[in-house]
Amino acid sequence: MPSATSGRRRRADAERSIARIVSAARESLTKDPGASIDDIAKAAGVGRMTLYGHFRNRAELVEAALAEALRAGEAVLSDVDLGGDAQAALTRLLESSWSLVAESTALLTAAQGTLSAGRIRELHTDPAKRVEELVRRGQDEGTFRTDMPITWLVNVVQYVLHGAAEENRTGRLTADETGRVVTTTIQSILAR
């Protein structure tokens, strides 16, 4: 008869296995959005049966990897000082955000191939909310434009970040210039 201790040990082993698989998925999909289940299982050091014991299909695994990347990004972004005027706060946020987006561009590509657009938007709720609050504050302060829907402006910010990440990935923008280009572009788009 299994003891409570052995049950906790199995649960802890399963949690470590899941964490290892998600980490391997995140790393593999960042390198290659088309990475297969076999590639990910091999990178995690587990068999396909173990992987499928935790994730029913590739879509679940991709979602878990994207969610983990977004959680890690949230941990970084939650430390960004968003006090003071909205324009300066947005600059600080953008300088911190673009590199996170750059790291996860390929992961987002993998997600777009397996998850619905609605689910991807849902997973991005917290980052989008942070930008929306800053844009709204800038509008209230009179520094950001008010002639366009706020949801559109937030989406434009995300499009610019993803575009800059792609430019950086392909070498058309260097890491040193990307932050400045992103900030200048978005600030000019939002300017009243």
From TrEMBL:
GO terms assigned for molecular function: DNA-binding transcription factor activity; transcription cis-regulatory region binding
Keyword Repeat attached: no
DNA-binding region extent: 36-55
Residue span, HTH tetR-type domain: 15-73
Record keywords: DNA-binding, Transcription, Transcription regulation
Gene3D superfamilies, alphabetized: Tetracycline Repressor, domain 2 (1.10.357.10)
Any single Pfam family the record assigns to this protein: TetR_N
UniProt cross-references to PANTHER family, sorted A to Z: HTH-TYPE TRANSCRIPTIONAL REGULATOR BETI, HTH-TYPE TRANSCRIPTIONAL REGULATOR RUTR
Protein name from the UniProt record: TetR/AcrR family transcriptional regulator
